[in-house]
Automatic annotation (TrEMBL):
Organism: Ramazzottius varieornatus
The name this protein goes by in its record: Major facilitator superfamily (MFS) profile domain-containing protein
Subcellular compartments: Membrane
GO molecular function, one term: transmembrane transporter activity
Gene behind the chain: RvY_12900-1
Membrane topology, as annotated: Multi-pass membrane protein
Length: 105
């Protein structure tokens, strides 16, 4: 949620709640139709296997990059965010000065 802008953040929070509720209803319906506990356990566990590899597609958190002092990667991420948002341009020197405290001294 930290990458999402302030305007769509409320909508995204609602969507997360909607998907959680829909998933809860689907689990209940699945348990009604699937009578074997082994099949039920398999069907409810298989979607989690997809999430094991999801980390390959998600970027690191900007806050985590900052806390780990990975300033170059953070600068590239901020440049990408500015490009996607279309809010002007981000000068590389300004970006480095903003994220790298050693350059501010």
């Amino acid at each position: 949620m930290e990458i999402i802008g302030s305007k769509p953040r409320a909508l995204m929070s609602v969507l997360v709640a909607v998907y959680y509720t829909a998933g809860s209803v689907m689990v209940g319906a699945l348990s009604y139709f699937v009578r074997s506990w082994r099949v039920y356990a398999l069907l409810t566990s298989l979607p989690m296997l997809l999430l094991l590899f999801a980390f390959l597609w998600f970027p690191e958190s900007p806050r985590w990059l900052l806390s780990e002092k990975r300033y170059t990667e953070l600068a590239h991420m901020l440049e990408d965010i500015v490009e996607v948002n279309g809010n002007g341009s981000l000068d590389e020197e300004d970006c480095q000065t903003t994220v790298d405290p050693e350059k501010n001294q």
